[in-house]
Amino acid sequence: MDERDWSILLTLYEEKNITRAAKKLFISQSSLTSRIHDIEARFGVKVIVRSKQGVTFTEEGEYLVRCAREMIEKLRSIEQTIQGFGTDVKGTIQLATTGLFTKHELSLIIKGFFELYPNVEFKVRTGLSEHILSLVSEDSSDVGFVRGDYDWKYDKKLLIEEPMYILSKEPISLENIISLPRVAYKGSNSMITTLNQWWKENYDVAPIISVEVDKVEVCKELVLNGLGYAFLPDSLIQGEEFECIPMIQADGKPLLRRTWMMYKSSQIKSAATRTFIEFMLSYYHH
Prior knowledge:
Number of helices: 9
Oligomer: single chain
Helix content: 40-55%
CATH class of the domain at 161-257: Alpha Beta
Largest sheet: 7 strands, mixed
Strand content: 15-25%
Number of strands: 11
Radius of gyration: 22 Å
Distance between the termini: 47 Å
């Protein structure tokens, strides 16, 4: 068993699907299946069971997945400790981030960091904010970027505050949206709770949700095509022709969508990760 085998087990466990796991690992399905067979032969047990519904891990497979997490984390800890011995900023930084932050912010951040520290490598995972928090909490990622407000017992820094708007292709008002179709973006639990609370503060009837999507950019495109209104942040308005109404809370303050950087300073052993966090604080608070 090597690091690649542990990564294969973890990825397949996350995806529960041979095709998706192979794509994520950049290998063929046959190669992935062959590696799983090798692992099963190595330990003399059945690791997975395949069905039309996907992949299910056996009890032995579940145990090997737990071992895989421990082995990869131990290897990363060794690498970070070794890298921290030198004065050069080098090594790998594991990031977990939302898709929106990746699209609108991360490319410029990484480009700027590379200009200062060219010997650093980034590994980036994307997902919903709740999943990102889990990755950082479990030490599977060094730094996470989440949208929304969460209880977090470790370190966090506020990076961005942006107002939320009611967006529509055609003119609308706060009074008539109760009778109009809404395009709903099924995002994080934090966002859903915030938007539901705002609605209850303003209306005593349920919204008319005509379409529900899981990608915020798809939501925006549907609004641009006149299929309804949506609640979206300021960053998605730039350069587009929308009718916009600011979302105001019951206390008269604008409804804000916050982006946070989450990390665990007690677990940082790499000079590269420490430098990256300092870079982020300077980048957003200069």
